[in-house]
Design brief:
Shape: rod-shaped
Largest sheet: none
Strand content: under 5%
Order of helices and strands: HHHHH
Structural class: mainly alpha
Helix content: over 70%
Radius of gyration: 28 Å
Number of helices: 5
Distance between the termini: 53 Å
């Protein structure tokens, strides 16, 4: 074979390899960027949902502590947020959210609390309904961030 043909083939082969390497690098980089954007949107979506759940659960819990009559609209709103969580949340977060809902309903069945009783609940750390939920959410976010 002619040396000029070998040189031309080597140059063509080198250019092809260089072009393929560039295309593959761009594809991998673009895929990583898309994944990072998806993860950021997913975390924002979950943070918003969990924020809404915490706010609604807090309102319902305070109402349950002060009234024997259930706030049906608030409980339905809380249940709807729990339903949305079933689509995207980890089993640990779901379990904790379900426990919150049960505790709120059980609280309606207890006598109304006075201010002194609420103070005692805070001192005994029995007032913090959302601690386990918050811990589960944080663990879920850390796991998502690790991916």
């Amino acid at each position: 074979m002619d040396t000029s043909a070998i040189t031309a083939l080597a140059a063509l082969f080198g250019a092809t390899i260089g072009g393929l390497t560039s295309v593959c690098t761009n594809l991998v980089t673009q895929r990583m960027q898309v994944r990072a954007q998806w993860l950021a949107r997913e975390m924002d979506r979950r943070q918003q949902l969990y924020k809404e759940f915490i706010e609604e659960a807090s309102r319902c819990y305070v109402h349950a502590l002060q009234h024997g009559e259930a706030d049906i609209a608030g409980l339905v709103s809380l249940y709807a947020k729990l339903g949305r969580m079933r689509l995207i949340s980890s089993p640990t977060v779901l379990k904790s959210a379900g426990e919150i809902e049960r505790k709120i309903i059980d609280t309606y069945l207890t006598p109304d609390k006075s201010f002194l009783e609420l103070r005692e609940m805070i001192n005994n750390a029995t007032f913090d309904l959302l601690r386990d939920f918050s811990v589960a959410c944080r663990a879920e976010f850390e796991e998502l961030h690790g991916h």
